[in-house]
Amino acid sequence: MATSKVVFTKLLIFSLVSCAWGRSWANHHDTTTSTTQTTPTTTTTTPKNFHNDPLIVETKSGLIKGYAKTVMGREVHIFTGIPFAKPPLGPLRFRKPVPIDSWHGVLEATSMPNSCYQERYEYFPGFEGEEMWNPNTNISEDCLYLNIWVPQHLRVRHHQDKSLTERPKVPILVWIYGGGYMSGTATLDLYKADIMASSCDVIVASMQYRVGAFGFLYLNKHFSSGSEEAPGNMGLWDQQLAIRWIKDNARAFGGDPELITLFGESAGGGSVSLHMLSPEMKGLFKRGILQSGTLNAPWSWMTGERAQEIGKILIDDCNCNSSLLVVDPSLVMDCMRGVDAKTISVQQWNSYTGILGFPSAPTVDGIFLPKDPDTMMKEGNFHNTEVLLGSNQDEEFEVTSGPRAHARRRLVDTTTPRSNIYYSHYRLAHVARSLVDTSPPTRAVATFPLTSPPRPTSDCVPLAVVT
């Protein structure tokens, strides 16, 4: 990892490396919206003149058509709900993602995708600080889709008069959402990717990935070598496949496949840091930004042994008999694939051990994570990746303020001795602002080496490099 020490100054959840405009809280109180897709739709034929349509992009998977939106006076081309993997349903449940087959015709990439299956948080009904994190699109196991936002003036098609070497290299920022590996979605209203793309001259992408047991059930040691049954880390494999799709198709959107920056908050930050270790991620990205979450967090990974214990508890709670794992594990998996998603989603919480012990997390599986992260770090087994580390201002502030704040703080006090962690986050941000001067914005950081003095390009959130 890069030796540069970087501190964020003014941080918002998604806009940490973006622009500090607009914060729209979710106001949805059910799991469906009219703009949500269930399956992608395509036209039956390929239009002969599609090259003349600026909203149609020719990817390696097929043609996709997005829509245009004016954001802060600038046009952004938006492509949402692009499938990058086959729906992980039926026999594909609890398995690594399978790349999507190519399609014929033009895929309509104009609707926000489903959110991966999860439980809604309803501990404090009507509390905006909780509701804003709940999925605002359909909840479904059919959820492996990605989204892309492109500033119109940076599209390759508008620079056809230039050679490939002369065309502008547009950096790509890939967002990975948080949620303790148990929840989250790329479609939340507070993730303002269109504003980032418009104001910071970058391409922004995000993906959905499986969470909870659907994304991290680990029982692979009960199967023969090479088996793909419940290998664990399916959610990380989802992220990897999405990032690979983005890299493979970067040029079609006018992006530079060699200038991909991963960034994420909480479990998203933890995911980014694990990608920096995994040999399966080599060459897929250049930089990583970790926001209030790293592999050092006690909730960010677990041993294979612990993951298997949790898996057995879930199997028994779903009436699938974990004792059969030593006799015929395939029978157990057949049973688990027959259990409805709601039952799995609810029963998985029976192994919950407190705020620092989520029942699902990245697992030391010997493949995606060959060894535990601490050991890999000590041994120097990580990618030579430039990295930003930061803590989001007001992290958990919504949980510890407003109506019934006292009751919520008491709840936190009873679950973890680190209940005042939000204070330390605030102090870190305050100290950073007091120690460093404001310096270059997002696009500079995404485009140039962190040790070089970047040039200002817009009114993006200032970042500071500390030497």
TrEMBL record:
Annotated Gene Ontology cellular component terms: extracellular space; plasma membrane; synaptic cleft
Catalytic activity field: acetylcholine + H2O = choline + acetate + H(+)
SUPFAM superfamilies: alpha/beta-Hydrolases
Domain spans labelled Carboxylesterase type B: 55-399
Keyword entries, A-Z: Disulfide bond, Glycoprotein, Hydrolase, Neurotransmitter degradation, Serine esterase, Signal
GO molecular function: acetylcholinesterase activity
Keyword Disulfide bond belongs to the record: yes
Domain of life the protein comes from: Eukaryota
Bias-annotated ranges (Low complexity): 32-46
Endpoints of the signal sequence: 1-22
EC primary class: hydrolase
Keyword Transferase: no
Segments for region (Disordered): 29-49
A GO BP entry: acetylcholine catabolic process in synaptic cleft
EC number: 3.1.1.-
Pfam family of the protein (one): COesterase
Annotated family: Belongs to the type-B carboxylesterase/lipase family.
Protein name, per record: Carboxylic ester hydrolase
Organism (species): Eumeta variegata
